[in-house]
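User: Predict the structure for this protein chain, please.
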Amino acid sequence: MTASKRIWTATIIFAMCCPILQAQVIYVDETKLVNNAYDIVEGTVINIDIRWDDDHSLINTYVTMKIDSAYKNIIKENEIVIKVIGGQLDGFITAAPHMPQYELNENVLVFLQKDDITYRTYGLSQGKFKRITHDGIMYLERIVDIDNLLILDNTVDSNGIINRYEYPLLKNTIQSNLVNIK
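Assistant: Here is the predicted structure, written as structure tokens:
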């Protein structure tokens, strides 16, 4: 067997024996979302701008959101910009696991962290809820890859993680947690 065949054989065996590494994100429950978010806002996505960073090495998506409500009342602006790592531009794609995806005209409730002049979604995809209606009932729903959540709290089972809430229930959970942190 030639040296190059031995290297390829060893590479294939190594690849088959080693698990594929996937990015994990720490699970953040609703109480931590409320307590640790800079603010919690509800509104509508009115613009999505995808552009390169300053050194042209990373694509970012900038989501402009018209604010209807701010639950911690820290944000006073009518519109904010949420920065999300990743996007598709000029034939290139930058993707990062667990990043929330926003759509134009989407109604959302978002838990935010503040950067310099922009915001980002606290808890990554766990902190963004889309407002939907199903059978006449309004829900807030989030898309979370449960299989890749790192659950540090041994009292939480991934089967118990809620990704769809009746609209008033999540708002009540937010309000009751806000009372507890004041």
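Residues 3-21 have pLDDT under 50 and may be disordered.
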